[in-house]
Write a structure and sequence with these properties.
By secondary structure, this protein is of the alpha/beta class. It is 18% helix and 29% strand. The protein contains 1 helix and 8 strands; from the N terminus they run H-E-E-E-E-E-E-E-E. A 5-stranded mixed sheet has the order 2-8-7-4-5, with no helix packed on it. Strands 1-3-6 form a 3-stranded mixed sheet, with no helix packed on it. The longest helix has 27 residues. It is elongated and about 90 Å long.
Length: 152
């Protein structure tokens, strides 16, 4: 009588590894969505550059807040939220990446800001006078949307 190894062990290990991978993905996804117990409500990166959740420093009088935003082929922007200070000039550098269709037009609703990019960087300057959250999207409202938050 000869002994032949069973494939059930290999299938069992594969199934177990797949199940462990799914559990790990759910745990990591839950942590990313709901945050840790120290930070139960994760916030988008609310800074001028969109890189850090720290409050933005007060701009020096006479300075300009530099903001960079890019429309991506996925139908989104590289930053979902940008925060600027009220009463200080903003220089918005808008560009596109690849074929973005109507995403090449940027409109910030409520601030009377519009520009169009065919890939090359377009610069628009404005000074927000009122605190609040303003939506940015393409002219048709299909891209994004993103939020420009004006704080005091």
């Amino acid at each position: 009588m000869s002994y032949e190894p069973s494939n059930n062990i290999t299938i069992g290990k594969t199934t177990l590894m797949l199940f462990a991978g799914v559990i790990l993905a759910v745990l990591i996804g839950g942590y990313l969505v709901f945050g840790s117990s120290n930070n139960p409500t994760p916030q988008p990166n609310p800074t001028i550059s969109g890189a850090s959740p720290d409050p933005i420093p007060a701009p020096v009088p006479g300075s300009v807040q530099e903001v960079y935003l890019k429309a991506l082929p996925s139908g989104d922007y590289d930053k979902s939220q940008i925060t600027v200070k009220k009463g200080f000039p903003v220089r918005l550098h808008f560009s596109t990446q690849g074929n973005v269709g109507c995403g090449r037009q940027l409109v910030i609703r409520g601030l009377n800001v519009q520009t169009v990019s065919n890939g090359a960087e377009q610069v628009v300057e404005f000074t927000p006078q009122n605190e609040g959250t303003y939506q940015y999207t393409c002219g048709m409202g299909m891209w994004g949307p993103g939020r420009l938050v004006v704080v005091s």
